[in-house]
Amino acid sequence: MCRNIKTLHNFKPAATDEEIRASSLQFVRKLSGFTKPSKANELVFNRAVDQVTQAANELLESLVTNAAPRDRADEAAKARARTAERFRSAVAER
Prior knowledge:
With 94 residues, the chain is mainly α. The protein is 66% helix and 4% strand. It is built from three helices and two strands, in the order βααβα.
C-alpha cells in the first residue's frame, strides 16, 4: 500500500508537487485503512491529504544537507539491481 512513499529529500531535480501529493495520499491511506474513503469520510480524508502534503512541502523546503544531491536515474538503477538480486535469491532457494 505504501509503495509511493519514497525518500523525496536531496534529489536533483527536486521532488515535484505530484510526487509529494502521491506520497501524502499513500500515507493517509495507510493511516486510515481506506484506499478510497466513503462519501461520509471523503471530505476529512481529502483534508488530511492536503494537510499532510502541506506539511511535507514545508519539511522538504526546510531540510538542509551538505551531501551532494542524488540522481534519480542512479537511485532507480540501484533499486532495480536490489530487486533483481532479491528475486534471483528467492528463485535459487526453491
